[in-house]
Amino acid sequence: MDASADRKLFLGARLKRLRRDRGLTQTAMAGDLGVSPSYLNHIERNQRPVSAQLLLRLADTYDVDLRTLGQSGGPASEAELTEAFADPVFQGLAVPRHEIIQLAEDQPAAADALLRLYRAFADRRTRDRAETDAMGGRDDDSPADWVREYVQARRNHFPELDALGEALSDAMGADTPGEAFETRARARLQSRHGLTVRTLPAEVMVEWTRRYDPHRKRLLLSETLGASSRAFAVAYQLALAENDAELTALADAAATPDEPTRRLLKVSLTNTLAAAILMPYAAFQRTAEETAYDMTRLQARFGVGFEQAAHRLTTLSRPTARGVPFFLMRVDQAGNISKRFASGAFPFSRFGGACPRWRLHSAFRTPGKIITQIIETPDGGRWFTLARTVDRQGHDAFTEGQDLAIGLGCELKHAHRLTYARGLDLTAPEVTPIGPACRLCHRHPCAERAAPPMDRALVVDDWAKSVSPYPFAGG
User: Fold this and answer.
1) Neighbours of 454 (CB within 10 A)
2) How confident is residue 265, by pLDDT bands cut at 50, 70 and 90?
3) How far is residue 411's CA from residue 399's CA, in Å, rounded to a whole number?
């Protein structure tokens, strides 16, 4: 028997809206439909299901398309309201899903009004942030923003962590031939800290890629981690086990605004120390120079992934052994930026995304291959850049792999030191002009523009069409 035939239909909110749209009382509608007012009242309160006979009477009496009764709400959908209520401005309210559904179905006009008000607020907030960014000022920071600004203020260079990393690497016998880092690190965790490492199925780890069990003194790793990510996870735990006091002191000295920010900063510092253990400063900087910053050679020499090696390159600012001052940006296929680091002075847009003219996003069309490009920023600066896709650490049922792209670059004057610039004419190169976020960018014309600059008026001419979808005054 078809189970759908027994499914009961509760359409109280939609029936009530239909009645109110027609200016009817419950008594009047009950009379039209040939049912009692109390029966109709129970239906509107979802205490009784709607029968097939009543649906047919509704269609005949009020000329209603029955398909519209099965569609949710008005202009404000459940998904849109859920997205709005997820904004940090509503933090602590925890509006349950059934209330959101009830709002969308029972009070569609109020729900639409709330959405319009929220969108106006969100747009104003975006404009305020963009104005702050344009003026070089600062806005109220989330923990992630605060930590990013703190790290960038240090040029992503922490000499005290580099020193700790080199000392620990030497103590572990970094030059032991034929012995992988992970093997040596596991042995040290076991012998000095009584800590074991286990790799478990993804079904057991659920959403976790790495988790420490302090009661049993076990580091649990997901099987979804690749070799380089697994080694980094072990290095992270080793950093905590050996230098927790130093990491805590550094985080405390930063004078973070609150406890969540302090904890996030400590995680960031621990990641930095883990990288310094895996890729000791002097050895990594020397290898980078000797190989002309060949990413494949660096990955092979230190047993790390592309992103790990690229990130380490942005930290090489030791006065006596400087590397090429790189910047790094990481984006997903939707354009969300999850990493921004620079040992130099690349003009990141704090709140915007990457310019679509930069071939960073083009890397998704050639997974695993390095794309080079020379770009020019609005201040006249020229930069040699590399872009390549990488896998996300771990995965879930919806991750397809190669779903992040890394952009790595340096000022053009340093490009001759890179193997990737060999054979190029760096004196008269082909240059692609790029801008910051579209709302801050004054470049015109630009066929890639997604929005007009916030400080310029949109110019609409029904007699002409520009290559730019948003021509603006002064462009």
Assistant:
1) 14
2) very high
3) 34
